[in-house]
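At your convenience, could you comment on the folded chain following this short note?
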Amino acid sequence: ILLIILLILLMLLMLLILLMLLMLLICLILLIRYMLLMVFMIPDEVLSNDYNNYQLRTGTYWRDSPYFTSKTNSITEDHDRIGHKRKLNEDDCYRVMKKPKVGSIANVEHHSKLLPLFRDAVNGAASNMVKIYHRKIMETVEQDNTDLSVWQSMADSMFHINGAEYQEIWSIEDIIETGSNSAIFNNIITNNQQRILNIFDTNYLLPENSTFLMSDFENIGILVDGKCYDFIVIDPPWVNKSNNRGSKYQSLPFWKLLQLPIPELVSQNSIVAIWVTNNPKFSKFIRTKLLPKWGLVYRTTWHWLKLTTNGEPVIPLSSTHRKPYEPIIIASHPSYQVDIPNDQIVVSVPGVHSRKPPLDIVFEGLLVEGPNMLELFARNLRKNFTSWGNEVLTHQEIQYFQPSEDPQ
């Protein structure tokens, strides 16, 4: 009898050990899956790698409190570190839909499916976020950007009158030598070395190996010069009621995106990442109209989860209207066969005016070696990128930078 009892206890012990090993294996699988799905990023440090002896001020990517809190249904003021201040009203934050539309129901269902992934990402990133940002000092930046739109309008007029004088590619040396500030518009400008450029009495820090075209939407055709790109980031100024970036923010009717010359710009190894709002009609437009028009195939949708420096979502995950995340629709050229992970979540603190994190570092292992890279609707320059937009120098003003503590 004693022997039988010992055998039973031994079997129970072995069973317990097996269960513990199984649980450990499950936890390990979940951890690996979680690590593969989440990319944690400190955007100002990534972007600072583009410069020698300079770094972005920490205030360019800093948010130490949520836009509002749902714990007591209290609404707080929405402060932008380098922007205006506005009050959020109850309708902005907690819209109660008595008769929800079909599209709204689908949106809620989509959010419910993603919620566990976002909660895991918050739990996994919060401690790292707190450790990193508690060692940082927030360097504020005064929002006093130079408005180049007046000068650009004058340049546009000259461009249409004297189109024959258009030079396809200018170097920064050409601009400096001729002293023609207006040449900065409607021309492809190349810059081989880091420098500070003074334009209309404002200093701009330009990273090395950067190229840009500053023009309005009608002149984007200048960008088509035979060069094709392996990675294209597109951040359209979507029309969005809940997106208030001030009077300087100009939206674009989404149907005009059909006019972008993407087919002439993509290579056969191209991946295209498109930032989009949580409005389902825009995602549907991209997948059913835009990508077929461009000759691209839809691959997957990633998300950018915005956290504060204290590791909290900038908007509660339980919010019924505004969301603390933005989708990124990923497409590719049909001939480029690469395994792109599904449900990837990029986690970071948002920048001023919801300035987004750089994506090239996330796609490094998915791109061909030495890729040609392009950003459309850009508001800053990047090393080894071509950037296009009518505000492409906005975040290059010297006020957004400070001397590097660790000179490269």
Observations:
- Helices lie at 2-37, 43-48, 90-93, 102-133, 149-161, 172-178, 262-265, 280-294.
- The first strand starts at residue 38 and ends at 40.
- Residues 2-37 form the longest helix (36 residues).
- The chain has eight helices and 17 strands.
